[in-house]
Amino acid sequence: MANAMKGLLIGGAIGAVTALLVTPKNGKEMRESLKLKSSELTASARERASLMASQAADKAAAARERVNEFGKVAAEKVATAAESTAGVFQNMKNDAQADQEDNKQTLGSSPSAGASSSASSGSATGTATPSHVYQS
After folding, report:
1. What is the per-residue DSSP string for the chain?
2. pLDDT, average across residues 47-76
3. Which of 12, 19, 29, 46 is the most buried (most CB within 10 A)?
4. Where is there biased composition of kind Low complexity (predicted)?
């Protein structure tokens, strides 16, 4: 688009200069004609630049809107993944605590049963592991 604008301005300038040089005019008429053409080209360039700036602003706003929308979707996906991960970790923690409680109960009843059977048999060599070793 910028190349087309450059081509239009350069082509217009070349055409205007060629027309002025080919047409027989005196010095004063030539200067007036050059001023007029230069004013026309300047106005045309300003108008075109204004239009292009407006189009660029519109495209930038549309791009900003798309980026914001993409960011919102990405944030929602991250939040969903975080919630899911937190749920999995909570389940794992609950399972570990339940296993730990089961182990405490199993170890808590075994040593006492072993101690009573060894005490009744007269042997005091029971090697029960203290229950505090399994606590976290």
Report:
1. -HHHHHHHHHHHHHHHHHHHHHS---HHHHHHHHHHHHHHHHHHHHHHHHHHHHHHHHHHHHHHHHHHHHHHHHHHHHHHHHHHHHHHHHHHHHHHHHHHHHHHHHHHHHHHHHHHHHHHHT-----PPPGGGG--
2. 94
3. 12
4. 108-136
